[in-house]
Design a protein that fits this description.
This protein starts with 19 loop residues before the first strand and ends in a 13-residue tail after the last helix. A 7-stranded mixed β-sheet has the order 2-8-7-6-5-3-4, with helices on both faces. Helices cover about 35% and strands about 10% of the residues. It is of the alpha/beta class and about 400 residues long. Helix 4 (about 115-130) links the parallel strand 3 (about 110) and strand 4.
Length: about 400
């Protein structure tokens, strides 16, 4: 068991062992202010928002207030906000719904090679249904080439889906340029903003975004709730059928406590974004500078400038095969980090990261990343502790590289 943990302290209760969480890209602690906002809807305000009586109207009012909050943050209209169960559902809905609604216009979709697994696996499924998928390559920093994107769009192209920021290496894509190209060529543009929302400014009008994915548990909200912005006029086929909830686009009784929590979490991120971003950038750069200085074998994955404020991703020359051992030894010292995407960690085959392969690493190197993702409750004290113990942990590792394994 992990044991109790408090956001206000990095020391485990009743113990002097540290308890440090540097895996905020996988999930975040729910902000106490969000919990307080949700609490009434977990007890007293329990009505079904589709009911006409006062209990239902109370929940309906909360639902529409949350819709208005989210739409104002991204410069959309409330009716363009559709609530879902997760970022994964939103991404599936975006790709499959647009693909099938526009099949008579074309059968071609474009995604980047470093999208989240829920995008890539949706594309694999769509290819079995007769759709043609182009996987746009990225450079060594994880950036797409907008000229390559423009050249890849053809008469059959109906959708471009490029994530705003990568969940593993933190690289931020030029979504405004992408949106401009798609708008000019009459192609729908979807972006997965699960990692960037709350950290980067998003304006769906200025950036010409047609469809946008957000989820709550990456922004200090609850798990099990997300949203999909769908611009008015976008042709999209409902993927979940039932009683016609969410303007007939996503049937299911709405998760009112979760939706209220998502809206409050988004509001807090928006209000505190500039100050918090500056704080996290300072901590991020301190980590990068010290690790590169103290461990000569270390290198950074992802773009150094176009990078999420909270993301650090290291590889270690000659020690890539020791990535999991490094993670576990840090965990023994009370420091929670990751080797990449939390969703990919469910893969029993321990496949190399498709993101690290796409930026040019070999299969062994692509298994050896160390990702730190900082968050609202991390402190400089915690960062200093990590920087103090990492060199000692690293000295306990054995060099197991692609060279020693014959490049396999």
């Amino acid at each position: 068991m992990c044991g109790p943990w408090k956001a206000t302290s990095f020391i485990r209760e009743n113990s002097m062992e540290p308890r440090i969480y540097f895996d905020n890209s996988a999930s975040t602690m729910v902000d106490p202010r969000v919990v307080a906002e949700m609490q009434p809807f977990l007890s007293d305000c329990f009505g079904n928002p589709s009911s006409l009586h006062c209990f239902g109207r109370e929940s309906k009012d909360a639902l529409e207030k949350a819709r208005a909050v989210l739409s104002s943050i991204i410069n959309a209209e409330p009716a363009e906000i559709i609530f879902t169960s997760s970022g994964t559902e939103s991404n599936n809905f975006a790709l499959k719904g647009i693909a099938f609604a526009n099949r008579e216009k074309g059968n071609h979709l474009i995604v980047s090679a470093i999208e989240h697994d829920c995008i890539l696996n949706s594309c694999k499924w769509l290819s079995k249904q007769g759709f043609d998928i182009t996987y746009l390559p990225v450079d060594s920093d994880g950036l797409i080439d907008v000229n390559e994107l423009q050249n890849a769009i053809n008469r059959e192209t109906i959708l471009v889906s490029i994530m705003h920021a990568n969940n593993e290496i933190g690289t931020i894509e030029p979504i405004e340029e992408i949106g401009n190209i798609c708008r000019e060529l009459g192609v729908y543009f979807h972006t997965d903003a699960c990692q960037s929302f709350g950290k980067e400014k998003i304006d769906v009008q200025q950036q010409n975004i047609d469809v946008l994915t957000i989820n709550a548990h990456k922004i200090y909200g609850p798990k099990g709730v997300g949203t999909l912005f769908i611009r008015k006029g976008v042709e999209i086929e409902p993927w979940q059928h039932g009683g016609g909830h969410e303007f007939g686009l996503r049937s299911a009784t709405e998760n009112i406590p979760g939706i209220v929590g998502l809206a409050r979490a988004a509001q807090l991120c928006d209000e505190e974004r500039e100050e918090e971003t500056a704080r996290l950038v300072q901590l991020r750069e301190k980590i990068i500078t010290r690790v590169l200085q103290d461990i000569p074998q270390a290198y950074v994955n992802g773009h150094r400038a176009y990078r999420l404020c909270n993301n650090v991703n290291f590889g270690f020359h000659g020690y890539e095969g020791e990535g999991i051992r490094l993670l576990l030894q840090l965990d023994d010292l009370g420091i929670a980090v990751s080797a990449g995407s939390a969703c990919s960690a469910n893969d029993a085959e321990n496949k190399p990261s498709h993101v690290l392969l796409a930026i040019g690493h070999n299969p062994v190197e692509a298994r050896g990343a160390l990702r730190l993702s900082l968050g609202r409750y991390n402190t400089e004290q915690e960062v200093d502790y990590f920087l103090d113990v990492l060199p000692g942990v690293f000295r306990n590792l054995r060099p197991i590289s692609s060279l020693s394994l014959g490049g396999l």
